[in-house]
Design goal:
The protein is an alpha+beta fold and 278 residues long. It folds into two domains: 165 residues, no CATH class; 91 residues. The protein has eight helices and eight strands. The strands form two sheets. The chain has a six-stranded antiparallel sheet with strand order 1-7-6-5-3-4, covered by helices on one side. Strands 2-8 form a two-stranded parallel ribbon. Helix 6 packs parallel to helix 8.
Length: 278
């Protein structure tokens, strides 16, 4: 009877992840736990011990002691290859010259320039091939523009469920309080009110008097308004990163931008509202 192949997979979306270096190191610790469990399950699945009889038959020309020693070396090499294939790796890409740093997470974090960090990828095993990994794979990607995403696969659903639960807590627990500012359902109305109110305030003296210049002014205002709206929308998305990793004791760039925007809105409101209450 033909052996049935099994495969389970899962995904997670992380719209925003903002945290300091210790928070990221805690995420790496969670991935290390998943790494150990994947290695343990992969060794069970590989069942290297089942090769002992064939191995010793091939080396029957050796004496018993030498054959046993060769088998132990072969078994240790097999375990090391699986452990290496399922080892956790990290790639960090910096904005300047698209420089990449690749290695184990602890070493990369010592070398990377956090102020110039563009994207990060953490991975173990392979999502595409089962060679040496026994079908285990996991990849966590972060980007300043897009936030984060997770893809995982395993021969059975147990490890996928474990990874999903552990990473859901570790990743979504770092969503900043201002996460909604990057959502269209908030940003669109907010820009409409702020920009519309500002332009109306600047034009109110002429509009209140009426006259032949009102229609021309309205057309110009719409052109300016649309340009400002598009520019402000993409400007906010650029100024508030969806992924940010900073040093302990620092404040996230996104938080600083939000404070500045909030101050500017309060100042504009203080000018505009009294004008309409006269």
């Amino acid at each position: 009877m033909e052996q049935v192949r099994q495969k389970a997979s899962g995904k997670l979306s992380v719209p925003m992840w903002v945290g300091d270096l210790p928070a990221f190191e805690r995420l790496v610790s969670v991935l290390r736990e998943l790494e150990k469990e994947a290695q343990r399950l992969a060794l069970i699945s590989a069942n290297l011990e089942s090769e002992e009889a064939d191995f010793k038959k091939r080396y029957s020309f050796m004496d018993s002691k030498g054959r046993d020693a060769a088998w132990e070396r072969h078994l240790a090499d097999g375990r090391d290859r699986i452990a290496e294939a399922l080892g956790l790796r990290m790639t960090a890409t910096q904005t300047r010259f698209e420089q990449e740093l690749d290695g184990d997470p602890e070493s990369v974090l010592q070398e990377v320039d956090l102020d110039d960090l563009k994207s990060v990828s953490l991975r173990l095993g392979s999502l595409y091939t089962g060679y040496l990994t026994e079908g285990f794979g996991l990849q966590v990607d972060f980007h300043r523009r897009d936030g984060g995403s997770v893809r995982m696969s395993a021969p059975k659903s147990d490890w996928v469920l474990l990874a999903n639960e552990k990473l859901k807590v570790a990743l979504r627990g770092r969503r900043p309080w201002y996460w909604f500012l990057r959502k269209w359902w908030f940003l669109y109305p907010a820009l409409v009110v702020v920009l519309g109110g500002t332009i109306l305030y600047l034009e109110w003296p002429l509009l209140s008097r009426g006259g032949n210049g009102v229609s021309s002014l309205a057309f110009v205002s719409w052109v300016v308004y649309i340009g400002l709206f598009v520019g402000a929308y993409f400007g906010v998305l650029r100024l508030i990163p969806a992924f940010e990793l900073y040093r302990p004791g620092q404040r996230a760039i996104g938080a600083r931008v939000v404070i500045f925007i909030g101050t500017a809105i309060a100042w504009i409101a203080a000018l505009v509202i009294p004008q309409f209450l006269k």
